[in-house]
Amino acid sequence: MSFKSLLAYQKGFSLAMEIFEVSKTFPKEETYSLTDQIRRSSRSTNANIAESYRKR
Fold first, then answer.
1. pTM
2. Are the C-beta atoms of 2 and 56 separated by less than 8 Å?
3. DSSP H or E segment with residue 19
4. Residues near 23 by beta carbon (within 8 Å), at least 6 away in sequence
């Protein structure tokens, strides 16, 4: 069994992809501040799930 089979990871991954698509529509002046921060935080959730699964 892998962390990729966890329901929380799967939902987090699909939400991160949705956030990425929505953030493409943000204004260009927000590209390096708000957009970048939102994208990084959405990926961080799944990274934390994967890390904690490996440590258990």
1. 0.80
2. no
3. helix 7-23
4. 35, 38, 39
d(CA 20, CA 1): 28
Q: Locate 51 and state its tokens.
A: 């890390």
Closest CA to 13 of 42, 39, 36: 42
Amino acid code (one letter) for 50:
A
pLDDT tens per residue, range 12-54? 999 999 999 998 888 888 777 888 899 999 999 999 999 999 8
Tell me how far apart the alpha carbons of residues 48 and 30 are, in angstroms, rounded to a whole number: 26
